[in-house]
Design brief:
This protein is mainly alpha-helical. The protein has one domain. It contains eight helices and no strands. The radius of gyration is 15 Å and the shape is globular. It starts with a helix and ends with a helix. The relative contact order is 0.21.
């Protein structure tokens, strides 16, 4: 999926979660907090690819992660999400709680969006089986936009 597609999908996801009242802290959260929180992390899983939008900006971090794990492995797994959640809980990071939840949702939205491609993601890494629901057969920003717009419209109508 493209950078633009991940951004659209993150915004669509956070709006849907807020509107359908899936997570209370998001439902009662400030719109600016949850949109910003999800946007801050929706590209973060691609830190494992030096040529990605985020990888090009943080090469000093991206290259070692890529060499150690490869692309779409550790950073696209449930294991890393659990590690991040534990770290946030232990460190008592001083962000509003709705921002923290939105950041986690932004990160997860990236992984779900990548699951919509044939390449899939290894959710249970280090187990290497990739999980995929291949709706988007190749990088197709029009289809990515359409899927995100449909989700946003559905969420707004909900």
């Amino acid at each position: 999926m493209t950078t633009e597609g991940h951004i659209y999908f993150a915004v669509a996801s956070i709006i849907l979660i807020k509107k359908v009242k899936l997570i209370q802290l998001i439902t009662s959260g400030d719109w600016w907090h949850i949109i910003l929180g999800s946007l801050l992390t929706c590209l973060l899983p691609d830190i494992d690819h030096p040529k990605s939008f985020i990888g090009r900006r943080f090469k000093w971090l991206s290259i070692p992660i890529y060499k150690l794990f490869g692309h779409r492995r550790f950073t696209h797994s449930i294991l890393l999400i659990i590690i991040i959640a534990i770290y946030i809980n232990i460190k008592r990071i001083n962000f509003p709680i709705d921002v923290i939840y939105a950041m986690i949702i932004g990160y997860i939205s990236h992984i779900i969006a990548d699951m919509l491609t044939p390449a899939g993601v290894p959710l249970l890494w280090p187990y290497t089986k990739k999980f995929s629901i291949p709706i988007i057969k190749k990088s197709n920003i029009r289809l990515e936009r359409l899927i995100s717009i449909v989700i946003i419209i559905y969420a707004m109508q909900y």
